[in-house]
Amino acid sequence: MQRTGRPGGPGEESEQEKLTRNFNELLQELRVTQTGVQILTGFLLTVPFSARFPMLDSLQRNAYLAILCGSVLATGLIVAPVAFHRLLFRQGERRWIVEAANTSARAGLLMLALTTAGVVWLVFDVVTSTATAHVFGAAALVFFLVLWAVVPWLGRSR
To answer: If you compute the radius of gyration of the chain from its CA atoms, what whole number of angstroms results?
Structure first.
């Protein structure tokens, strides 16, 4: 890709080019998560219609509802950058779009981690015991925290 060479000499990106590149990179990253979170939400929407759902106790039903809400929030947050862009396209708001999309994507990933750990907790609670569910739900949450936050933070300090 050839640069215009405007601000600081040949080969340097202009502010608009940098913002466009940043937004395009963010959208590429979100394509992966959007599909996964939409499938998770779709699956969760079918759970109450399964034969075993009436056998859940009140804790499990409340956990299911919280997990479903988390999944819907994750979907909304991860898809929001597309809406931001569509509504503000060509209105000179590229910087705001990139910053808001980044914030929304980060919050969406947090909700996705919480929701997925919640799903792990619920499945283990239904299949094994509440104590085992606590262990594996917490392990899933720690896994996401380490992989999505600690590893990049350690890589950044290098």
So the answer is: 20
Structural domain boundaries of the chain? Answer: 15-115
Q: Which residues of 14-42 are buried (b: 16+ CB within 10 A; e: fewer)?
A: eeeeebeebbeebeeebeebbeebeebbe
Residue-wise pLDDT tens digits, 10-50: 678 888 899 889 988 988 888 888 888 999 999 999 999 99
Backbone dihedral region of 19: left (phi > 0), alpha (psi from -120 to 50 degrees) or beta? alpha
Cβ proximity of 141 and 114 under 8 Å: yes
Closest among 138, 140, 148, 84 to 110, alpha carbons compared: 148
To which H or E segment does residue 31 belong? helix 15-46
Contact 19, 94 (CB under 8 A): yes
